[in-house]
Design a protein that fits this description.
The strands form two sheets. The protein has a five-stranded mixed barrel. A three-stranded antiparallel β-sheet has the order 7-6-8, with no helix packed on it. A hairpin with a 6-residue loop joins β6 (167-168) and β7. It has two domains: 4-78, Nucleic acid-binding proteins (OB fold (Dihydrolipoamide Acetyltransferase, E2P), Beta Barrel), CATH 2.40.50; 86-243, de novo design (two linked rop proteins), CATH 1.20.1440.120. Helices cover 35% and strands 22% of the residues. α1 (86-102) runs parallel beside α3 and α3 packs across α4. The chain is elongated. With 244 residues, it is α+β, with helices and mostly antiparallel strands. It has helices at residues 86-102, 112-123, 129-143, 190-201, 204-207, 214-231, 237-243, and strands at 4-17, 21-28, 32-38, 57-63, 68-78, 167-168, 175-176, 186-187. It has seven helices and eight strands, in the order βββββαααβββαααα. The structure holds zinc ion. The site of zinc ion (ZN) has 8 residues, from loops.
């Protein structure tokens, strides 16, 4: 008998398959990121009609396949309202693509699902679009293990003393204590270290209450871009769109 799947998730990708089917990628609470085949989803009278749109939160049930699972039922919990703000729209697509690229199919990244849920909720309410984007990326990179906690040295694990010169590892997202630094590593300012560490540790609503200097925000973005460039084999399609 096939193993049954039953969980809650958010649709982060959809693509057409065959004549009338659709494959949806869903970030779920119980199984991490999964790909599901929704048979006949593109037919007019499909039971999935309107339920598998991007950023919809759904209750789903189906059966497990080897790589691709089969979707039997999908009940809509919450649809992301139609977004008219161009800035938010761009961020949404960037978040979806990045989440899809950073979490391999069939893998769980603890905390990623509630983070996406919370981010979608706050994105509709805040004007701090840059902060919400940076906080999401930093938290997701931390949950997926690509970023080590910024209160410790990424090599010897010693707690960092911010009175010492602290460097960023030349290629990874690790901070380095004076004993572990090499000349290729770049020194970082204390406000930047504190701000990134704050975004790693504190809930999203707290980060949206902190005011940040424009220069620190810009430095975070430049640094995030270089980390993602090292991590991803090809650029994100939505990145050009984000800059437009
Ligand atoms: Zn060290």
């Amino acid at each position: 008998m096939k193993k049954q799947i039953k969980t809650t998730g958010i649709v982060i990708r959809k693509c057409d398959f065959g004549e009338a089917d659709r494959i949806v990628t869903v970030l779920t609470d119980d199984y991490g990121k999964i790909d599901l085949l929704a048979k006949g989803a593109r037919r007019l009278k499909s039971k999935f009609c309107g339920r598998l749109e991007l950023f919809n939160e759904i209750d789903l049930s189906g059966s497990a396949g080897r790589e691709l699972h089969y979707l039997d039922e999908a009940d809509l919990i919450k649809a992301y309202p139609e977004e008219k703000n161009v800035g938010r729209h761009r961020i949404l697509f960037y978040l979806a693509e990045l989440t899809n690229r950073l979490i391999p199919s069939g893998q769980q990244a603890e905390g990623a699902y509630p983070l996406l849920q919370e981010t979608l909720y706050h994105l509709q309410k805040t004007d701090r679009l840059e902060t919400i984007l940076h906080a999401y990326l930093i938290k997701l990179l931390t949950f997926t293990g690509f970023l080590s906690p910024w209160n410790k040295c990424g090599i010897c694990d010693a707690s960092l003393n911010l009175d010492d010169p602290i460097c960023l590892h030349a290629t990874d997202g690790h901070l380095l204590c004076p004993d572990c630094q090499s000349p290729a590593d770049r020194p970082l300012s204390v406000p930047l270290i504190k701000w990134v560490n704050f975004m790693q540790q504190y809930p999203l609503p707290d980060t949206l209450r902190v005011s940040v200097k424009e220069e620190d925000s810009q430095s975070v973005w430049i640094w995030l871009q270089s980390i993602l460039e090292n991590l991803l084999s090809s650029p994100l399609k939505s990145e050009a769109f984000l800059k437009a």
